[in-house]
């Protein structure tokens, strides 16, 4: 058998390499942008836009209807509370006093009659004072005024369980002038229907 020389072997190797390189396809062009991004999306169909607008308008209309319903409910509650309070009138006090005055006794009797005719109604008595004096002093005085009114109602036959007390001291004035007439209006007990 014949021996192949090293030079022949090298020549065969070079020829094979050239054929291999010549037969390989050229490199494909590679883009850094994926094909999906090159596609321009089709504009949304007018029907889809219209449907989205209608859905948005429907949501806005529902929100507006809910807001109006809540406003109407609150108005009905305010009206019911005002109607319930029609028969309850405030009473007034002398300066630095928590004693039911003689002119307030008729009002207290009328308030008791209203509570008797509305057997399930509860009332909150709110004690108030004029602007003079410290916050702490007026809180205590307002509490004494509310307690005096409660005792008077209980003595007239109203259950103490139906009456709650709160003192606002000088925090809820009905008049803001610094005159005796205005101070007189602020020295009061308010009778507010409660749940």
Describe the structure in your own words.
This protein is α+β, with helices and mostly antiparallel strands and 195 residues long. It folds into two domains: 55-87; 89-194, OmpA-like domain (60s Ribosomal Protein L30, Chain: A, 2-Layer Sandwich). The protein contains six helices and four strands. The protein has helices at 6-23, 35-38, 46-84, 102-117, 135-155, 180-186; strands at 91-92, 122-128, 163-169, 188-194. It has a four-stranded mixed β-sheet with strand order 1-4-2-3. The chain is rod-shaped, with a radius of gyration of 45 Å.
Low-confidence stretches: none
CATH structural architecture of the largest domain:
2-Layer Sandwich
Largest sheet: 4 strands, mixed
Q: Reading side by side through the largest sheet, how are the strands ordered?
A: 1-4-2-3
Could you say what the CATH topology of the largest domain is called? 60s Ribosomal Protein L30, Chain: A
Shape: rod-shaped
- CATH class call of the largest domain: Alpha Beta
The tally of beta strands, per DSSP, is 4
N-to-C SSE string, H for helix and E for strand: HHHEHEHEHE
- What is the structural class? alpha+beta
Give the rounded overall mean pLDDT: 83
């Amino acid at each position: 058998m014949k021996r192949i020389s090293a030079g022949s072997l090298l020549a065969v190797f070079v020829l094979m390499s050239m054929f291999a390189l010549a037969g390989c396809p050229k490199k494909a062009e590679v883009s850094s942008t994926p094909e999906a991004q090159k596609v321009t999306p089709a504009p949304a169909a007018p029907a889809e836009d219209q449907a989205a607008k209608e859905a948005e308008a429907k949501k806005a209309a529902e929100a507006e209807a809910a807001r109006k319903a809540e406003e109407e409910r609150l108005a009905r509650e305010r009206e019911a509370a005002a109607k319930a309070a029609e028969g309850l009138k405030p009473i007034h006090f002398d300066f630095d006093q928590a004693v039911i005055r003689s002119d307030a006794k008729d009002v207290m009797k009328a308030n008791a009659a209203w509570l008797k005719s509305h057997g399930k109604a509860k009332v909150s008595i709110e004690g108030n004072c004029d602007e003079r004096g410290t916050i702490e002093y007026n809180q205590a005085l307002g509490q004494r005024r509310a307690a005096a009114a409660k005792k008077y109602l209980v003595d007239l036959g109203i259950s103490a369980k139906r009456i709650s007390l709160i003192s606002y001291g000088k925090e809820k004035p009905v008049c803001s002038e610094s005159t005796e007439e205005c101070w007189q209006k602020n020295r009061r007990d308010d009778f507010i229907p409660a749940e």
